[in-house]
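[Q] Does anyone have a clean structure-token version of this?
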Amino acid sequence: MLEILGGIFSAATGGGALGLVGGLLRQGLDYFNKRADIAREVEVLKERNAHELQMRDRDLALMQAEAAANLKVMQEQGDAIADVAQINAIAASFAADKASYATGEAAKDSPWFIAVDVVRGLIRPGITILFDLAMLAIWGALMVLLWGDLSKLFAARDPAVTVPMMSLLMEITKSIIFLATTATGYWFVARTSGARQ
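[A] Here you go.
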């Protein structure tokens, strides 16, 4: 009977142990299979995320290109608006010059209003011509006053003296031309539409 009990016990123990080992092996295989499934899902997610990241990078590059294009268009529009404003300022300046006091029935035949219009029409060109002539006279006076000394210096033909002297004369000439053209440009172009001379 002990043998029978020992056989039953050993069969139960052996079967239990084998069942336990089989269960553990099954759980191990399930664990490895589950782990492999998770690894495959991670790889699929990585591929999807890589694709999404590439799409986001492309979207970002497209947005940057669009922003650069919009900025260029806005700069060009700003330049065009500035150009139109300059043209309008010039037109307003010319329109202000055409303003006349000898209008209306009461002032139409008045010699005083006609005289005011004539004087007003001549002031800006007259002052501009006088200013330009004054600049030319200043330059001419400098040349006359310095001519004796200049001719002696130039006669010496010493480059150490003549080169700086010619440079100085050119700077004086350019400065006078700059002043004359600045005044002329300002008086004829850059006036506001409401300004009256």
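[Q] Thanks! Anything notable?
[A] Residues 1-98 form one domain.
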